[in-house]
Design brief:
With about 270 residues, the chain is mainly alpha-helical. It has one domain (about 5-260): Up-down Bundle (Heme Oxygenase, Chain A). The chain has helices at about 5-15, 15-20, 35-60, 75-90, 100-110, 115-125, 130-135, 140-155, 160-170, 175-190, 195-225, 230-265; strands at about 90, 95-100. Helix 3 (about 35-60) packs antiparallel against helix 4 and helix 3 (about 35-60) packs antiparallel against helix 5 (about 100-110). The longest helix has about 40 residues, at about 230-265. The termini are far apart. The mean pLDDT is about 95. Pfam families: DUF3050. This is Heme oxygenase-like protein. It comes from Rubinisphaera brasiliensis (strain ATCC 49424 / DSM 5305 / JCM 21570 / IAM 15109 / NBRC 103401 / IFAM 1448) (Planctomyces brasiliensis).
Length: about 270
């Protein structure tokens, strides 16, 4: 399928925002194990809420209720189901299967990062609290809180084009370009305690860069067709997704800088 003109124009108009993320100074400060752990402790929330974004798309594009009925979007349904398999039950480094979120938690534990905060969020959600309540109960740091809340605001809109846009422009089409920056840092610093983290990053680069990104683009074309209003929603949501990602990166950088200043004073 050739690229849709509306999709091409959106990609072009998002170039500056994407470049701000690709050239963000946060990658340059990940030069000690402690700073890498700080990064992971905030980034993990984006790893977690990704699954809800994916599941929202699965709910919209496939039938997950009984009695079952066929999907009106079979190609999009196949794409989403393929991603669910890889995101929810991917191959572990040493055999077996786990979700990417669980892989990330294992990587955090391997390097000594604190998993208590994100564990508190999961516990609050299991108890039936709303997302806003769970974020507050778990005392999630503000940059991560804003990121997660925006994700769930998009999901709550119920607009499949908006959800697909956040999924495509904020995740599948973005992460294969962001994560190599972190992999390069891990190679440069040669941190032995981050092998599982590197595996997680490599898996995303392989899966998202090889197949998922182009398939996500095709999904948007199928969903939006030639409806200008749908494409307007796609672009508006894409800008929101990239903007809130930049705020998360800004927040991580500020947290690392604040810790460095505190160490200097002591």
């Amino acid at each position: 399928m050739s690229a849709h003109p509306e999709l091409e124009q959106i990609h072009h108009r998002l170039t500056d925002l994407r470049n701000e993320l690709l050239e963000h100074p946060v990658y340059q400060v990940l030069d000690t194990p402690e700073r890498m752990r700080q990064f992971m402790q905030l980034h993990v929330y984006a790893v977690w809420d990704f699954m809800s974004l994916l599941k929202a798309l699965q709910r919209e594009l496939t039938c997950v209720t009984v009695p079952w009925v066929p999907s009106a979007q079979p190609e999009a349904a196949r794409f989403i189901n393929d991603i669910v398999i890889e995101e929810e039950t991917d191959q572990l480094q040493n055999g077996g299967y786990a979700s990417h979120f669980e892989m990330y938690l294992s990587a955090m534990e391997e390097c000594g990062a604190d998993v208590a905060e994100v564990g508190g969020l999961i516990a609050a959600v299991r108890e039936g609290k709303t997302i806003a309540e769970a974020l507050q109960t778990a005392d999630v740091p503000e940059p991560a809180r804003q990121f997660v809340q925006k994700t769930f605001d998009i999901i709550a809109s119920g607009d499949v084009c908006a959800i697909a846009s956040a999924f495509t422009f904020g995740r599948e089409g973005l992460l294969p370009e962001l994560f190599p920056q972190i992999v390069t840092r891990l190679h440069h610093e040669n941190y032995p305690q981050f092998s599982q983290f590197k595996y997680y990053l490599d898996r995303h680069i392989l899966l998202d860069g090889g197949e998922h990104g182009p398939m996500a683009d095709r999904m948007l074309v199928h969903l939006c067709g030639n409806e200008r209003e749908r494409w307007r929603i796609v672009e508006e949501t894409a800008v929101q997704a990239l903007t809130v990602r930049k705020r998360l990166w800004d927040g991580i950088l500020e947290a690392i800088d604040a810790s460095a200043e505190m160490c200097e004073r002591t």
